[in-house]
Write a structure and sequence with these properties.
Length: 432
Amino acid sequence: MNEYKRMRSLVEITRIVTQSDNFYEVKDQIINNMLAVVHPTKACVNLFYNNDYNYAHLVCSSTLNYIPKIFPQNEEYGAKIDFSVYPDYIHEAVEEKKVVIVDDIFKNEKAKGEENLAINEGYIGRAIFPFIINDKVIGFMTCYLSDQEKLKPEDIDFITQVASMMSLSISITEKNDGINKLIGKLRQSITNINKASKRLFSTQDIFYYLQKMANVVADTTDSKFSMVNIYNIGENGGPMGQKFTCANDQNAINSLAARMPIILKDHRIYDYGKTDGEVLVDGKSYTNRIFYKVIIDSKSMLVILAVGDKVYTEDDFNIIGALAKQIAASVKSYDYSEKLEENKAINDELVVLKHQQKLIMDNNSMKKFADRDLFYFMKPAKVVGGDFYHSMLVDDRVIFILADVMGHGIVANYMVALIKGAFEVLVRKVPN
């Protein structure tokens, strides 16, 4: 009968764990289901956060009476307790990753100093079940035993299985938190990129934009230093020369730039791990790096480099890849808008030139000379032409002038207009 109850309880605990992505919302349900079929009437859960074994966080203590008063809740999920105050047998369970049971703490040397706590909480023995994920202890569950309560081998097996399910629930929660943090970082980064992009298009300040992007890369990937580079692409498809470069810290720009030739020669578009050599900034060396390359268009390429103390992961690769593509898209749009502005300025200039040519060359025929008419014809291949012609009848002679203004801009056209006026005055005043 007891075996049947344990099985039903384990099935229910499994359902609770698999249907929730938040351990803190279901921890009390798991404890209550467990205690309903085993002898201990009290249990609690302690967790170590971020591999910090200096503190054990009491996150589940709903079945206890006295201990929560000694260690009142001082954070979101419970009490932060100095792990050094815990008895030796709990340290043994954590360090050796094994179940430790103390039947009578009043007779066990490893429980020395715990007597007063046991009297007030009303227990004689304790059983410690560590939570293990990827061979690391992330916390432990304590079952409190009165003088009438003893754990049988089948009880220990059952509680061990429950501890495994709780470890799974904690792991799911950590991964979910990691995903949420990653999404939060990306959202903030994309927001910052969009803000900087708007300013880029309004001010045309590409250096300000790339400086902001270097800061975004460093913040989002938790890197110490980062650099954003744009290279020209040569005819062979490889980087030819640096067009723009910005770093989140000017003190690091030379050290980061020294790594770029190696990265540019690397056939991979991305990589993360150890650097091929130390990046030395202000006397401190950094050996972890991540880089990402993106082809912007046929003439330019974006290269992002970040370095720091942290060990980069696939999450960082996903982040920097998303940022790189977003930055490349903004730079491409900027280049396109810049070319549109250049084309607009050229078109405006051509319209002025066309109007000027019409004013300067407004008549394509002359009066009769020796019973003959003298004509010229000029038709531009595009908006304006590159040749200029003007002629005059002076006495019994035809005097004319030719000029080539192609490729010399609007100023040359003004000069031709001046020459035309001067020409008309001079030919009448200068003798043969």
